[in-house]
Every structure is written in C-alpha cells, then in structure tokens.
Write a structure and sequence with these properties.
It contains 15 helices and no strands. It is mainly alpha-helical. The longest helix is centred in the middle third of the chain and has 33 residues.
Amino acid sequence: MAIGSEVVAAGTYMRVWFPKVPVVAWMMVFGLLLLLVNLFPVGNYGTFEYWLAFIKVITIFLFIVIGAALLMGTRIHPQYVVNGGFAPHGWRAAFIAAPLALYSFLGIEMVAISSGEARSGAEVSKATGISFAMLVFLYVGAMAVLVGVMPWRDAGVAESPFVRVFNVAGISSAATIMNLVVLSAALSAANALLYVTSRTLFSLARSGDAPKGLGTLNSQGVPMRALMASMVGIVIAIFVQKFAPQQAYLYIIGAALFGGMMAWLISLAAHVRFRRVITREQLAGLKLRSPLGATGSILGFVAITAAIIAAWWVSRITIVSAGPCLLVLSVAYWLVRRG
C-alpha cells in the first residue's frame, strides 16, 4: 500500500502541469514505468534509482544551505524562541505528528533487504552507515531550517514550506522547482518500495513462508512473479483513487502506515531475541552491530508502539486496518504452512 500512496502523490502532482488529465491516468503510466524499470537487472535498477534520489538529495542540501544562510544573516529573525517558543501549545502536537513523521522513514530497511544482492558484507556495513548519516543530515537539517525560517502560524497545506523558504531567499521559480523535486521523490520512493516488496516476497517464498512460485527468477535474475504480485498495491491505489478521489491518499497512507510500523516492531523484537541467543564469540565476529544492542531495540519497540497509539488522532484507518491486516497475514501464513 505504501507503493500506492507514492504513485497517488506522483499522479496528483502531474495535475499541476496537465490539469485535464485524470490522476488515475498518470498513476497507470507511472505504474507501467516502475514495472519496466524493475524488469532490468539490479545494476540497471540501481542506476535509475540513483539519479531519481540524487535530484531530491541535492535539492534538500541546497535548501539546508540557503536556510542556514538566512538564519545566520539579518534578513529574517529565527523562529525558535518567538511566537510562544519551540512548543507553544505543549508537546502533545509533536506526539500526534509522530506517526506521519515515521512514515517518512519507511524504506530504511531497504539496506538490509538489498544486502542479498550486495557484492560483500563490507559494502552492506558501509551503506548502512551512509544511510543513517544522510537521514540525520537531510531530515534533521531540513526540519531545523523549516522551524527556524517559517513561523509556525504560517504553516499549512496551501503552500509547501520548502517553497516558502526558497521564496524568502528570492528564488522566483521555487514552486516549479519543488514540484519537479516532489515528483521525482515520489517516483523514487515508489520505485524503492516496489523493489523491497518484490525481494521480500521472493525471500519469504524461498524460506517457505510464501507460495513457492514467488521464489523463482527469470533469465535476468529478477523475481518476476514476486514483482507482479507487488504491483497489486498500485492496482488497489488506482481503484481507490477512482472511486474515492478526495480521501484516496489519506486512506492508502493510513493503511500503509500500520504495515510499515508492524514490520519495524517485528524486526526490533527479532533483534532482541537474536542478541539473547547469540554467543559472545559470534557477536564479536559480526561486522555490523547496533551501538545500543538489545536495549536500543527495546526502546525503539516502545516508541513505535506509542506512535501507533498516537495514530488514533491522526488517521484512525491506521488503527482500524490493524485487525484485518493481521488477520489476512495470519490466515495466509497458515495456508502456506499447511500446504
């Protein structure tokens, strides 16, 4: 479903330039484009994804640099301590916003999932370190700039906060630039999620936890059947957008949010269990270890559980979808194991 939400976002942004073309039409075009990209071997896929991600990374980097220059200059007054301070109405708002903030980080697990196609364990370790460093710099840096430059009373959906900061810096074409960046970012996220989903299904099939047919590779080394099954998220999103266009994005992102956080909860619980059964000798031989060990995973588990509870005030479909999601997964697991 997370794949579908990104395709909905991409189709919606295309209406800025082509208002007469339905969003559903753009979603179908982007869905076919993503399928085509993922049909190529992983090396070609990586090149395409690199350039899509490169656009948004460079833009956010420039945004941070420009914002930092504004904050250090005399053109604007930093907003950290004015208009009621950093949390004018208390920290409840930050707690409620946590679920949607976590959604922005879905996909970091791609480093682990793609490790099976890496050339060496050292590269996986290096990629993990780079990923965390980039996330801290880009996300925390961008948020620090936004909070410092843009008064919180002016925040809303009428204008992108990124556009607002670029306009303050005197960049007249900020809206066009950001529309292009958001489009590339949405396609990049959907492309990455499609890759992750297909490889996860492939891995589950090989371990006996999904239908065996999903564990086959074509002549290009691509899990074709798992890839086609992963496209179901985009197909569902097209139908939702067709019959409930006003709420499509919220419904899809709400349903996807629980699935993403559940995956994290399972991963954290698995890591805690892993650290309890592994020997000291085996632990010493690992090239990549969590700095906080099992304690960090326990704290993360508690934090994500709290975020799921907070989702009730943001998007209740996240909580409502939890029961059916768990039921479908449990029944599917039972059927596969029984077969």
